[in-house]
Amino acid sequence: MPMADHPATPAVVLAGGLAQRMGGGDKPLREIAGRSLLARVIDRLAPQCDALALNANGDPARFAGFGLPVIADPVDGFPGPLAGVLAGLDWIAAHRPDAEWMLSAPADCPFLPSDLVVRLHQARLDQQADIAVAASAGRSHPVIALWPCSLQIDLRRALLADDIRKVDRFTARYPRAIVEWPVQPFDPFFNANTPEDVAEAERIALRDSS
Q1: Which of 91, 107, 149, 182 has its CA 20 to 30 A from that of 10?
Q2: In the 8-state DSSP scheme, what is residue 179?
C-alpha cells in the first residue's frame, strides 16, 4: 500500500550533461508538443517534492524562466550525473538542512510518474534500504532515485578520491530498493536522448493529452 504521507523531499533535476547524442546544446529546452522537456519534468515533480533545484553548468541565465535555483557541478570536467547528485546534496545542506531525503531525476524524462516519490519512500522502508531506485521493463534507472542526504560526504569522497563516475558503482555500496513501474501505455521513464527519441516523445505527449 502507498504511504499516506512521506518525509519532505526536495529534488534535483539533472541537466548537467553535454547532450552529445542530441548534437550538443541544451537538451532540456527541446520542445515536445509545444512545451520543453524541462517544463514537463517540473510539472511532474513539483506536486511531489517540496523544493526543486536544477543542476546545470554554464550560464544559468538561460534557465531563468523556470524560476528554479541553478546549481553547477561541484566537480570539474563533467564527471557525469553523480556530480549533479552531489550538487543537489550540497544545495540541500545549505538551504534545506532539515531535509533527510532527496530525489534525483533527469531533465529529459518528460513522463515521470505521479507516484514516484511516495513509492520510492515506501520501498526503502519496506526493504530497509538506504537508496531507492526506479525501474521499468526489467531495467533500473539509477539517476531516478531517492537518496539519503547523509551520503553527501561519502559521495564527495567517491568522486574526488576514488574517481567513481558510474552511478551504479557508487550505489552498489549501499542497500538498494529497486521499484518497478509498468510500461503501458508508455514507459514513464522514457528519456529523450536523440532526435528520434524527441519525435517519439512528441507522439506520446500528444496521445497522452488526447
Answers
A1: 182
A2: E
Tell me whether residue 159 is annotated as binding.
no
Predicted confidence band at 79 (pLDDT cuts at 50, 70, 90)? confident
How far is the CA of 25 from the CAs of 14, 15, 41, in angstroms? Answer: 15, 11, 18
**16 marked as part of a ligand binding site:** yes
Q: Rounded to an integer, what distance in angstroms lies between the CA atom of residue 118 and that of residue 45?
A: 12
5 annotated among ligand-binding-site residues: no
Does 14 appear as a known binding residue? yes
The number of beta carbons lying within 10 Å of the beta carbon of residue 34 is 9
* 101-151 residue pLDDT tens: 999 999 999 999 999 999 999 999 999 999 999 999 999 999 999 999 999
- Side chain identity at 85, as an amino acid letter? V
Q: Is 129 annotated as a binding residue?
A: no
Q: Is the peptide bond before 47 cis (omega within 30 degrees of 0)?
A: no
pTM of the entire predicted model:
0.92
Render 94-120 in DSSP notation, one character per residue: HH-TT--EEEEEETT-TT--TTHHHHH
Backbone angles phi, psi at 109, to 5 degrees: -115, 85
Q: What are φ and ψ of residue 134, in 5° steps?
A: -75, 150
How far is it, in rounded angstroms, from Cα 69 to Cα 76? Answer: 20
Architecture of domain 11-208 in CATH?
Answer: Alpha-Beta Complex (3.90)
Q: What is the pLDDT of residue 21?
A: 40
Question: Which residues contact residue 94 at a Cβ distance below 8 angstroms, ignoring those fewer than 6 apart?
Answer: none
